[in-house]
Amino acid sequence: MSKCHICSHRFKFVSFAALLITLIVNVNVLAQPYERSEVLDNSVSFRFATFAKHKVHYASSGNLDKPGVLFIHGTPGDWGAFENYLESNQLQRDFFLLSVDRLGWGESPLAPELIDGDFDLQARAIKAVMDQYPTKKWTLVGHSLGASIAPKIALYAPDSVDSLLLLAGSLDPKLGKPRWYNWAASTWAISSLIGNSMKYSNREIMGLRKQLKLMDAELKLTTLDTDLLIIQGGKDKLVSPKNPSYAASEWQSTFNTIEVIQLGDEGHFLPWRQAPLVVRSLYKLRAAREQPLRY
Length: 295
Prior knowledge:
Layout: H1 3-30, E1 45-51, E2 54-62, E3 68-72, H2 83-86, H3 89-94, E4 96-100, H4 119-130, E5 138-143, H5 145-156, E6 161-167, H6 180-185, H7 188-191, H8 196-206, H9 208-219, E7 227-233, H10 243-250, E8 257-263, H11 270-273, H12 275-290
Parallel strand pairs: 3-4, 3-5, 5-6, 6-7, 7-8
Antiparallel strand pairs: 1-2, 2-4
Helix pairs in contact: 4-5, 5-9
């Protein structure tokens, strides 16, 4: 067989491998069960916050005089993952609602120094959004990688974050390891053939374990007056259902209260499949702050 034919077969194999990995990642990560509205509700407005040389885009709605709720999307994603919450008349009446584009997603430009999904930079950028409303108390709602990052924001803004609602988030450093297709997609051969969105998402996942380990060490040395509620699906194929038990055990001295809700038959896409539960949880967390339990 000639060298030309060998090269042709190798190219076809690499192309096929890239296609296979693309399909796997799309099925497991990108196929999130929500659609963006073609026409946005005029109750939702858009702004930018600045952090150092970075611009952070976010959407807002609701009552500015009410407690704040800030939504943090996973990877990939953008503010629109929580569009239905921002357009809810009920939530607009009782809360001030924000949903951010994390750095590198949506209208928030990618920071060149954002390596390995740096939680530090992502958290400080989101804090810059919160700083636009300096007297506001917040519940942070994170999904997937957004849930992983949310505790880091609480470390930076302990006086502003009343509670965390973490949905299907990787929290245990030992469980935050990349899958085989993440390793494959990070190779030059495959990386050069997949789109920028998938490439950046894969970079965030490849750095997840390191970032969780750094954050975990900080949390264990800190005491926060913050309530933590974790919701996890028992059939989640992207984030291990064992994550909440780690947080409940290892972070019990860090947070004011920790509650775990395990949904045995649920998967990864909790913000859309369990929206009523998410809404009830927001009101529960707010009530706990407004009427503290007395012992």
